[in-house]
Design brief:
The chain is an alpha/beta fold. The strands form 2 sheets. It has a 5-stranded parallel beta sheet with strand order 2-3-1-4-8, with helices on both faces. A 3-stranded antiparallel beta sheet has the order 6-5-7. Helix 4 (66-77) packs parallel to helix 5. The protein is globular. It has a single domain, classed as Rossmann fold (3-Layer(aba) Sandwich). It is built from 9 helices and 8 strands. The protein has helices at residues 18-29, 36-46, 49-60, 66-77, 95-107, 122-130, 170-184, 186-193, 206-218, and strands spanning 6-11, 33-35, 85-89, 114-119, 132-135, 141-143, 162-163, 197-201. The termini are far apart. The protein binds BIS(adenosine)-5'-pentaphosphate. BIS(adenosine)-5'-pentaphosphate binds next to helix 1, helix 2, helix 3, helix 6 and strand 6.
Amino acid sequence: MSTRELRLILLGPPGVGKGTQGRKLAQTFAIPEIATGDIFRNAMKARTPMGLAAKSYVDSGNLVPDDVTIGLVEERLAGSDAQRGFILDGFPRTAAQATALDALMHKSSQRLDAVIEINVQSPEVVRRLTGRRLCAICQTPYHNDSAPPAVPDVCDRCGGVLVVRSDDDEATVLTRLAEYERKTSPLISYYRAAGLLKVVDGNGDVEAVFRRILSAIQSPVSPVA
Ligand code: AP5
């Protein structure tokens, strides 16, 4: 386990492995993984007002409105466990969210260390999403072929039952990919211009991708194009 401070964003389309890698990074650096998708799904399950407001967007593969999402991340980043750092998985996803995060970092005199863009080709992304199973309790992702649990349908970490995510059907996956292209992919040039972007090949097994991310975190930022 490392004790260094680290403020990282994981960027990339649905299914590239942000959640899988985010959990490993959080464990390695002993900082929280803040995954907006997990927060929405937990709120939907608990039927909180935020969960009820988010449900139609999440189920249809569209982005939840910025004001809801920014408010929840602001609140979460103020938590005492996030003061030494955090792994943001799935936030920011729009220009307005990126601007709000910049303002928040400025206000709290903190700085982002890097934005890791994970790259995987579309056919592999669809294969990963259509074979995904998720723990209904702790939301750890598994895959039928490439990351099966030790005991079928049971989470290795907490013993919860594994389920299929409501937005992992093919039609909704296509909507999510289109949302990413239209609203989130412009952030790649935004963070490249800010000198924070590091691009990592997300192909290969989970450990190989993890080693690439660790090495990207250690290396100097690539020159701005
Ligand atoms: P969210 O939960 O963030 O979904 P996503 O971005 O679509 O990403 P995924 O969770 O689908 O994929 P991932 O990259 O984490 O991949 P994973 O590690 O699971 O968001 C869901 C919804 O919430 C959004 O559509 C939106 O409605 C709302 N939302 C969330 N954030 C928002 C925001 N900021 N603003 C507005 N709305 C927001 O891996 C996928 C599969 O591949 C798994 O089965 C895994 O086991 C497998 N796998 C992982 N790595 C590998 C590997 N190297 N090799 C083989 N298999 C692998």
